[in-house]
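Let's study my pick:
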Amino acid sequence: MAALPKRIIKETERLVSDPVPGITAIPKEDNLRHFEVFIDGPSSSPYAGGHFSLELFLPDDYPMCAPKVRFLTKIYHPNIDKLGRICLDVLKDNWSPALQIRTILLSIQALLGAPNPDDPLANDVAEDWKKDEKKAIETAQSWTKQYASAKLQE
């Protein structure tokens, strides 16, 4: 395997030495471009109390192209589909090589705190959100308890 670029080494060291509150990102030993990520649901969101597992992969052309990130924990969110793919501008058209892994993870955590049903990836969830936001939030809370409770993952 080719040596890791200095940039990835630096970013990884910073993630480990100066972690973002509520976010853990650990590179896998067999592939240092592949990270196990855990994000805690923001306290003021329907995902509060949730401990979400994600995977993040840095393609060979990173940082010229965005990391690949997806949720492994099942989540009820208008911008995250059943496969865990995330609709987030910085992972697509608004990606910039100036962004870092930690910036992306913070953006994903912020997305949990501010679902956007007007730019959906999960159209059914977005429709529910628009029709009856209170009920959609209750569903998100119940899925969080069911699938993302920290007790399940210990």
About this structure: The radius of gyration is 16 Å.
